Amino acid sequence: MSAAFVKAAKQFDALVAALPLSDGGEEAQLKRIAELQAESDVVGQELQKQLEAAGPLPGICLGGTTNRLRQASYGCIY
Questions:
Q1: Which comes out higher in pLDDT, residue 68 or 42?
Q2: I need a labelling partner for 26 at 20 to 30 A (CA). Which of 11, 53, 60, 74 fits?
């Protein structure tokens, strides 16, 4: 049992050492988080521009009712 425990502990240590978060410490991690957030913001802004350029999406009516008022108020997604 102790051999299995030692083997498992060595595997755990190897996995922890392989984590990218262990390089550079907390300051490097915070810097990388800020970089990723800035990249995410740029992508979000570009997506927003594309959505605005596409204009409003048409409503999609569901169901086959003949009553237009009911169809407009209950069966459409806008």
A1: 42
A2: 11
